Amino acid sequence: VEAVHLIADGKAPRIPQPKEGATYEGIQKKENAEISWDQPAAALHNWIRGHDKVPGAWATVDGQVVTFYGSSLLDASVPAGQELAIKGASRPGLVTKNGLVIFGNDGKMVLVRNLQFEDGKMIPASKYFSADETTALELTEEEKKMAEDIR
């Protein structure tokens, strides 16, 4: 009751909270979310998962910033896949049919399901090497006629 009266009267003491021991973390910024590769797989997974969706954990791949989303620990044998060099990683990642497999410094693996490029385009990690491929749509004569009728 006394504290309430002091506040109401404007006489309550004001003691600034010390920063030492504070647990509040400020808003994460993208420049602080770069992946440090010299960690075990569990730490890499927690880093990626902890920055999923905002701001997004990222690394430099083929000279551009690529953001990693949707990680999970992978407890299996090393899958077959196409190697992908990642700046700073001691071992190249593997683009597999399930996603991008990255390795911790303990030799264990993390599976990343989605990648986002600097231009905002997001793709399944398994499609990394086929992302730039475009196929021309070829219509049969019957389909061309149908297309003309629709126009």
From TrEMBL:
InterPro entries: Formyl_trans_C, Formyl_trans_C_sf, Formyl_transferase-like_C_sf. GO terms for molecular function: catalytic activity. It holds the Pfam family Formyl_trans_C. Residues 29-130 form the Formyl transferase C-terminal domain. It comes from the Eukaryota. CDD domains: FDH_Hydrolase_C. This is AL1L2 dehydrogenase. The lineage of its organism: Eukaryota, Metazoa, Chordata, Craniata, Vertebrata.
